[in-house]
Design brief:
The chain is α+β, with helices and mostly antiparallel strands. The strands form 5 sheets. The chain has an 8-stranded mixed beta sheet. Strands 9-2-1-13-22-21 form a 6-stranded mixed beta sheet, with helices on one face. A 3-stranded antiparallel beta sheet has the order 3-8-4. The longest helix is centred in the N-terminal third of the chain and has 17 residues. 45% of the residues are buried.
Length: 357
């Protein structure tokens, strides 16, 4: 009989795990307190990259994740995953040179462009004196990718329960027994916690520490526009891109990837207005207005690095991280390898939850 698995959370990480485990023949149920991709996933920028990283090991993890997306892309809708590349001029002069040298030393694809070359690639954007091109990077439309992975998991027998929250992880005799909900207990042989910022409250009662940083983030979305941008663009003021429906997306904080804001005290509409002014400077010939601004509680463990692995009672597994979009395909493979196949996935030693014990 196939082992029963409950995946708590139907964001992009939970969906990728459900797909991997159901493909491996496990009996998977995804338990989601709201609806799929309505938490941090649905408010994500959607950039798949390894140019942003904390250290060498983190770079290699993110670079392996790019390869994992290539392995998965054949089963996803074409518009949901696009290998558009990134143009980055966040740094200037010696700092830009140093960034290029570091990435090249790691084996990453980097091309240096002058203003004329930039203008040919992004004619609507105010051209910087020089920039770096990262051609191997991509964007995922997070909601579309999450829903597609859940549909594919369903084709392999996975079940999705929406609007029902996990209230506790049930244990006995040193292992998980299932998940408690307001509607009763659901039995399982394995419980995978992919619940983002909701994870710590579930883990404390079973003796697992997962300290998290408060990292709220606001995402601006413009009105839908004709096709304007071909790449992810990263300038000193902000990151911005265009989604599959024509909306421009831009975090309201500069350097969104490394933003350390703990509390957003300004009114969201004021931050959106200010971000739109900065975006307008980058697209001087385009009339812009913002349509929505969305607040997300980004799931950032205390040291900023992903948490992936077994912890606590036997059968319990954690998958909590930022950025979930970059890492989801790789995490789906790794959890399948470790939970379904009983093997140790390579490259995860620095990201085990025991570092917080």
């Amino acid at each position: 009989m196939a082992k029963r698995v409950i995946v708590i959370g139907a964001g992009i990480i939970g969906a990728a795990i459900a797909l991997g485990l159901s493909r491996a023949g496990m009996q998977v149920t995804v338990l989601e307190a709201a609806t799929p991709a309505t938490g941090a996933t649905g408010r994500s920028f959607g950039w798949i990259n390894a140019s942003f990283h904390q250290d060498k090991a983190h770079f290699h993890l993110r670079n392996q994740a790019i390869a994992a997306w290539h392995r998965l892309e054949g089963v996803l809708p074409r518009a949901a995953l696009r290998w558009c590349g990134c143009l980055c001029w966040e740094h200037e002069g010696p700092a830009l040179t140093a960034q290029a040298a570091e990435l090249e030393a790691l084996g990453y694809a980097v091309e240096r462009l002058d203003a004329a070359a930039f203008a040919k690639r992004e004619p609507q954007v105010r051209a910087p004196a020089e920039c770096l091109s990262f051609p191997t990077e991509a964007v995922a439309e997070p909601v579309a990718v999450t829903r597609a992975m859940l549909r594919l998991a369903g084709d392999h027998g996975a079940k999705l329960i929406e609007g029902v929250a996990a209230t506790a992880i049930c244990t006995g005799a040193g292992r998980v027994q299932g998940v408690q909900t307001a509607q009763g207990m659901m039995a399982a042989d394995h419980v995978i916690v992919a619940a983002g910022v909701a994870a710590p409250a579930l883990l404390v009662p079973v003796g697992v520490a997962l300290p998290m940083l408060p990292r709220p983030g606001l995402m601006l979305r413009s009105q839908a526009l004709p096709p304007l941008l071909r790449h992810v663009c990263v300038c000193p003021e902000m990151e911005f891109r265009q989604d599959a429906k024509g909306h421009l997306l831009a975090p309201t904080a500069a350097s969104h990837q490394s933003d350390r804001t703990e509390v957003i005290q300004d009114r969201p509409e004021d931050l959106a207005d200010a971000a739109l002014v900065r975006l307008q400077r980058q697209l001087p010939g385009v009339a812009l207005r913002w349509e929505a601004v969305m607040l997300a509680a980004r799931p950032v463990p205390q040291d900023g690095l992903p948490v992936i692995g077994a912890a606590g009672p036997e059968g319990l597994y954690l998958a909590v991280m930022h950025s979930g979009v970059t890492l989801a395909a790789l995490v789906g493979e790794a959890v399948c390898q470790e939970v379904a196949q009983g093997q140790v996935a390579a490259g995860l030693g620095a990201y085990r939850p025991q570092r917080f014990a």
